[in-house]
Amino acid sequence: GRSGNEKLSAAILSGLLLLVPFQMGAEGWDDHSRAKRRTGVDMAKNYLDSLAPNAILFTNGDNDTFPLWYVQEVEGYRTDVRVINLSLLNTDWYIDQAKRKAYDGDAVPFSMVQDQYRQGTRDYVYVQEKWPDGYHDLKKVMDFVKSEASNTKIPMSSGVTMDYLPTNKFSIPVNPSTVLANGTVLPEFTNDIPERMEWKIGKGAVLKAKLMILDLLAHNDWERPVYFAIT
Q1: CA distances (Å), 9 to each of 1, 13, 14, 17, in order?
Q2: Which of 2, 33, 164, 211 fits 126 for a cystine, CB–CB 3.0-4.6 Å?
Q3: DSSP string covering 40-57, please?
Q4: Is the pTM of this model over 0.90?
């Protein structure tokens, strides 16, 4: 066994080590306290104030997400908005949460069910332009991607099959009465409303988060206002 002096020395050393974090906290508290710094909170409230009621806001990273979560959770501010972090949207548990009501915010209208987005399923979806050239209705594209039929898969060198987007050009029909009624389009631009919105993606594959955005846009039918934060 150890001598009494050794035990005493060990006890003193342990005590000193335990004091270190307290000393660091006491010395650094004033320098690191955010108690009177309102930049993050003000930024978050300005972000939320710029959104229409019942909006869905996609954010990218920590700095444009955490302040928004804070003002909603702690201050109860603009709890009608659903803040969806794109990094987390690559996980099935977060998609599960988004599909449920939170605070005063309605569930995000994703059409995909859990078996279609669970971890290891459609984590990475290739773009293979197998459909005829032109813009294709996004609902039909998403129905193809969600299908379990063998003709909606592409074989990989490893022997597994992967889901894929059969086109990189999408369209969404525009209902004039809906976009005018909810303020998406101002009345003075009534005659400029197109029959459909068309766009294409330039990448050879999309992660699950981007696939979920496509799913939302396909099935939102312009009902909920959708925004994207700029980091």
Answers
A1: 14, 6, 9, 12
A2: 164
A3: HHHHHHHHHHTSPTT-EE
A4: no
Tell me the pLDDT of the chain (231 aa) as tens digits: 556 778 888 888 888 888 888 888 888 877 777 777 788 899 999 999 999 999 999 999 888 899 999 999 999 999 999 999 999 999 999 999 999 999 899 999 999 999 999 999 999 999 999 999 999 999 999 999 999 998 999 998 888 899 999 999 999 999 999 999 988 999 999 999 999 999 999 989 999 999 999 999 999 999 999 999 987
CA atoms within 13 A on the CB side of 137: 8
Sign of CA dihedral 225, 95, 113, 134: positive
Q: Are 176 and 190 in contact, with CB atoms under 8 Å apart?
A: yes
CA proximity to 215, closest of 177, 165, 181: 165
Q: Could you give the CA distance from residue 88 to residue 219 in angstroms, rounded to a whole number? A: 21
Alpha helices in the chain (DSSP H): 4-32, 39-49, 66-73, 92-98, 114-117, 138-146, 176-181, 208-220
Neighbouring C-beta atoms of residue 25, cutoff 10 Å:
10
- CA 207, 211, 212, 214 dihedral sign is positive
The two tokens of residue 206 are 């999309």
